[in-house]
Amino acid sequence: MDVTPGSTAGHGAASITLDGIGKRYPDGTEAVRKLSLDVAAGELVVLIGPSGCGKSTVLRMINRLIEPTAGRILLGDDDVTRVDPVALRRRIGYVIQNVGLFPHQTVATNVATVPGLLGWSRARTRERVDELLELVGLEPAQFGRRYPHELSGGQRQRVGVARALAADPVVLLMDEPFSAVDPIVRTRLQEEFLRLQAEVRKTIVLVTHDLDEAVRLGDRIAVLSEGGRLEQYDTPAALLGSPASPFVREFVGADRGIRRLAVTPLTREVLDPLPTDGATDLPTVPLGGSAYDALGALLTSATDRALVTEDGQPIGVLTRARVLNLGAGD
Ligand SMILES: Nc1ncnc2c1ncn2[C@@H]1O[C@H](COP(=O)(O)OP(=O)(O)OP(=O)(O)O)[C@@H](O)[C@H]1O
């Protein structure tokens, strides 16, 4: 995804600027010391780091569920500490683990929460609820009247996302949104969520423990260590390819080569010329496809070369050694 600041702003998406923010809890715990971070409008940034490093505290300072004790937070050009917190939270969608749906209200009423608070007319609200449920893949006529306990975990999670998007917020904050569902449902929700984000282009800050999720979803990933210290802020490929510190290297783990292949597209630079022996039995992989898929094709066909195609035509050869080099990084 293109993350050039200013060029990809979704409709009504705002940039976020964290400027030296800190949080010292009343008992003296310094959960976050002086963190600075910029998130472009329409960008999806993932916060990741070990348990207790301050991820949730950072997220909750953005919508002022937690008041910062130092620094400034800007939404676009607005300093959030100068905005009424209730009004602020209506401009910011918030999705948490286990969703927090109101159990005694229907799915439709849950999704209509913020439009209701904003005083939208009944007709406008109903239209918006139907639109949102469709957007997250739940048939409004079928699911709108159900109660949360009548849904699967994955469906509840989707209702949570629909509710957070209902009033067209400028920012979406997500705290471990997909962690309460099993890995297969999680992968499917992540894919659906990426499609949804391509459509709505919100500015999103998402907290996770799961590096695979971070790599799959993030335009950029911020790796935090204790005290909300920013260890590295980079694209997934850069993070996996060149960890900036021993902490990050250890955090992204020994299998980062494999993870890196998944986010590295095949380019012309890594190709050798087409073979003169007319080897037509080689597996083919498309230019622009991931190096991970290319490695899969090589392993499946037990060869050490693949033909790379563009518009169905072979344009070069990819060797197994080249693919492994792509995973080796720095
Ligand atoms: N109300 C509080 N009072 C005192 N300390 C707190 C409070 N809330 C959180 N903390 C501490 O602040 C630090 C950061 O907590 P936070 O929940 O932000 O971390 P996290 O990275 O989100 O953790 P996890 O991944 O385990 O959810 C922790 O040391 C935690 O114990």
From TrEMBL:
Domain ABC transporter: 16-252
SMART domains recorded: AAA
GO molecular function, one term: ATP binding
Domain of life: Bacteria
The EC number(s) this enzyme carries: 7.6.2.9
Keyword entries, A-Z: ATP-binding, Nucleotide-binding, Transport
Pfam families from the UniProt entry: ABC_tran
Xref: InterPro entries: AAA+_ATPase, ABC_transporter-like_ATP-bd, ABC_transporter-like_CS, CBS_dom_sf, P-loop_NTPase
Class of enzymatic activity (EC top level): translocase
Recorded family membership: Belongs to the ABC transporter superfamily.
Name of the protein this chain belongs to: ABC-type quaternary amine transporter
Organism whose genome encodes this protein: Micromonospora auratinigra
